[in-house]
Specification:
about 15% strand, Isopropylmalate Dehydrogenase, about 45% helix, about 325 residues, 10 helices, alpha/beta
Length: about 325
């Protein structure tokens, strides 16, 4: 029910995904007036009576929106009726409800928002992207452990972890960053690469980029803005003059290939790592295609038992 488009993107995407994945079952949670006349055989509608608005404060939503689609969806995971929850709604409320209903594993102070970003060679994971504005060095170490587990599940046997900083020299950064670097250096469960700067996020030098939620969210939004600016300029150049239109026609196959690789929809779906269940946050403005990628990310994490593997990794590290 949440996000910029609400059921207009989430519902068609979920129905299409259910029809093409008959080996899976789906609980579609929303207000009854949005229920389609006919559902796929592997889908069930759960009626809710409240909606968490995008402007709702997380604490207020937690107290007053316990009959909302968001609450029911996370509750289904907590009760074992679902393996994963996907939502494009209010991020703060989703985090608050997830932490309340699912809890974090022992040894993990706070969940972290993690998502893949495109790089020269493929993609890298970045966390945290906004769940935790201020982080201790120990929490940054926890993020590194959780990101490494997710990267390993994606096929990287020994993922390299970088700590986002304002410089690569050891003396750079605040006290928390320098202490976190020391902890990561000493942790045998983490393949620590060292500091990376902002431009290093997209080079592919590391597989996991660790930062606090304030820095991570700003970096993500800046990168999305730059990508949008480039796309707009290319469109304007193609429409602007005869020579621009000719050049656009010639370059179109290359631009199509570039778009396929760096299309934000392909990287939609941020994971709330550290919770005792899979919760994936779709971008609020995601279209039907983008929401489909978020659903696919949730299925992959559930099948790979990411929460359980994170719990085991953290437990081993604490022993």
């Amino acid at each position: 029910m949440g996000g910029d488009l609400g059921p207009r993107s989430a519902l068609p995407a979920a129905l299409k995904f259910a029809q093409s994945h008959q080996d899976l079952s789906f609980l579609l949670v929303g207000n009854i007036d949005h229920a389609p006349a006919e559902l796929p055989s592997n889908a069930e509608w759960i009626a809710s009576t409240q909606v968490v608005e995008m402007c709702d404060q997380p604490a207020k939503a937690l107290r007053q929106k316990q009959n909302s689609s968001m609450w029911y969806a996370i509750q289904a995971v907590a009760e074992g009726r679902a393996h994963a929850c996907v939502s494009c709604g209010n991020t703060g409320a989703l985090m608050a409800m997830g932490k309340f209903l699912l809890k974090t594993f022992p040894g993990i102070d706070r969940p972290a928002i993690c998502k893949a970003v495109p790089t020269r060679e493929g993609s890298s994971l970045v966390l945290d992207l906004g769940a935790n504005v201020d982080c201790s060095s120990e929490q940054l170490e926890q993020f590194a452990l959780m990101g490494s587990v997710l990267a390993q599940a994606g096929g990287i046997e020994s993922p390299k972890v970088g700590l986002l900083n304002i410089g690569s020299e050891e003396v750079k950064g605040n006290e928390q960053i320098r202490l976190a670097s020391s902890l990561l250096t000493q942790n045998p469960y983490i393949r620590y690469h060292g500091y990376i700067e902002g431009d290093g996020i997209f080079t592919g030098a590391v597989d996991v980029v660790v930062c606090d939620g304030f820095v991570g969210n700003v970096a993500l939004k800046v990168s999305e803005g730059v990508a949008g600016l480039l796309a707009d300029h290319l469109s304007e150049m193609e429409r602007g003059s005869f020579f621009g239109r000719v050049a656009g026609q010639i370059a179109r196959p290359l631009l199509r290939k570039w778009h396929m690789k760096f299309d934000p929809a392909r990287y939609n779906g941020a994971s709330f790592l550290g919770l005792q269940g899979v919760v994936v946050k779709s971008h609020g403005s995601a279209d039907e295609e983008g929401f489909g990628y978020a659903l696919a990310a949730a299925v992959e994490q559930a099948r790979n038992e990411i929460p359980q593997k994170i719990n085991q990794q953290v437990a081993d590290c604490l022993l």
